[in-house]
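User: Teach me something about this protein's shape.
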Amino acid sequence: MILTGKSAIVTGSTSGIGLAIARVFAAEGASVTINGFGDPAAIEAERAALEAAAGAPARYDPADLTDPAAIERLARGCHEATGGPDIIVNNAGVQHVSPIEDFPADQYEKIIALNMSAAWYLTRAVVPLMKARKWGRILSTASAHSLVASPNKSAYVMAKHGIAGMTKTVALELATTGITVNCISPGYVWTPLVENQIPDTMKARGLTREQVMNDVLLAAQPTKRFVTPEEVAAMALFLCREEAGSITGSNMSIDGGWTAQ
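Assistant: First, the predicted structure itself:
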């Protein structure tokens, strides 16, 4: 259990990619703080399962990541409870699909706040704590859209390019501290985030559900299958290993060949 004695915060971890990462971290012994929204009973069941798997405390923090003060409390709460965090995964995200001229301003602000600004605020909050321990892993879930663009996703693509840029910059700032900073860029992963954008894409492009899945989503991925959350989690775990200590400032593609084209 390579993460025994370590603690981690994984945002957006009550479902999808974040929950898969939290599970693999707990399976390797980490004390995990999960964060996100959902049914309270289901969240408590997941928290208890993480604690049992890790043999270490697991916490749930409902912090609203659009609120910088709440992000500060999230970091401080983890530190007070576990002495960490040693690892953070900036994973929380939201999506909206619309041509820019029809894109609602409130949706733009929400996407930028949750997908990009929250990662900056949490990273800023934990760097001093990691520096004191001379070890840390800062990971962010970016997207193939941190490298390429798709129509009708201006805010999301903007935010994910921002995550890639932050990763490179902070990696250089922390290069001699024992802290690595990387992002993971999946292609389309079958999660609620992807499933929930299908109706908007149907409307924006005048397509059926099947056409969106096959002719829009999977059209970009030469493997013609969705990436699994577990594949992304395996990469996140590898980047936390000691053997990954020289990997920093990297954008790791897991996209079925999408960005090789």
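Now, about its shape. The CA atoms of residues 7 and 31 lie 5 Å apart. The beta strands are 7-10, 31-34, 59-60, 87-90, 136-141, 179-186, 251-254. If you'd like, I can walk through any region in more detail.
User: That's plenty for now, thanks!
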